[in-house]
Amino acid sequence: MSEFATTPSGDRIAYDRRGSGPGLVFVAGAGPFRAIDPWTTQTAELMADSGVTTIVYDRLGRGESPAEGRLDLDRELETLATLIDVAGGSAVLCGHSSGCSISLAAAARGLDVAGLVLWEPPFGAIDGGAREWAGEVERRIDAGDLEGALAHYMKDMPPEWLEGLRQSPEYPQFVSQVVSYVGDGESLAWVESAPLDALLRDVRVPLEVLLGQETFPELFDAAERIVAAVPGSRWLQIPGADHTWEPAAMAAELTRFVTAAATERVR
After folding, report:
1. Which InterPro entries match (predicted)?
2. Beta bridge partners of 242
3. Closest CA to 55 of 97, 103, 105
4. Is 70 exceeded by the pLDDT of residue 25?
5. pLDDT tens digits, residue range 203-247?
6. How large is the angle between the packed helices 98-108 and 182-191, nearest 10 degrees?
7. Residue 188 lies in a domain
8. Are 108 and 226 contained in the same domain?
């Protein structure tokens, strides 16, 4: 059964908490929420059995976390600060896709982040067009063209993803929830706004970038640039395909990472 937490601004966040031990919060990218994401739930369950406190939540405007108004990056980070408290006051963040840029922004702004695991961050080069792309998505949202906003958000993704979504019974729900993608767009524009070593100069926590063994070639460049910007970080590949991880392999790697980060933190 869902638990709920309320942010200082009054946003009510639905989440599942499992396990006991050092904490990890999963940060979804654009689209997923608990009811349609069995991979994250399964990963969290496996980790909880291995001595990790896991938090899986519905981001603002999705699932059981309805929200009104502009769902921007500031509200996303306030949500994360609240859930880090739920996890014990400090937690590793595991970002998926644009959840990676939200997680990095949380660490850069000084939230009590114990470590960062970034699954397939889709970061472009400096001034790579994310600011204009995110602005057009938000312009369409403001105009009430939610279907157009979703199409524009997904314009650089494999076209079969959008076509498959259009054939899905969940398509109307995805259209209505595109208002929750504003924070994703803002965070992706932020990581393109300056060199990563400048943006991440204060991020000095354990960090690793994970790519699936079947992935997109452009993601290797992003992984290498992140690792170059944060001393002591690394990237590696584990089982996964189509931008999704394999739960057992991911749970094992995350458990190892969280345990090591907790040990390093108490030294």
Report:
1. AB_hydrolase, AB_hydrolase_1, AB_hydrolase_fold
2. none
3. 103
4. yes
5. 999 999 999 999 999 999 999 999 999 999 999 999 999 999 999
6. 70
7. no
8. yes
Q: Which domain holds residue 143?
A: 130-179
Q: Which spans in 87-145 are helix H?
A: 98-108, 130-142
The pLDDT value given to residue 263:
87
Say if 185 falls within a structural domain: no
pTM of the model: 0.97
Note whether residue 251 is domain-resident: yes
d(CA 164, CA 200): 36
* 211 shares its domain with 246: yes
**Three-class secondary structure of residue 153 per DSSP:** helix
DSSP 8-state symbol, 192: T
Side chain identity at residue 153, one-letter code: Y
Query: Are the CB atoms for 104 and 188 separated by under 8 Å?
Result: no
Write the single-letter amino acid at 190.
Answer: W
SS3 of 22, please? Answer: coil
Amino acid identity, residue 198? Answer: A
Helix (H, G, I), strand (E, B) or coil at 254: helix
| Same domain flag for 113 and 239 | yes
CA atoms within 13 A on the CB side of 118: 33
Distances (CA, A) of 30 to 48, 85, 139, 230: 25, 23, 17, 25
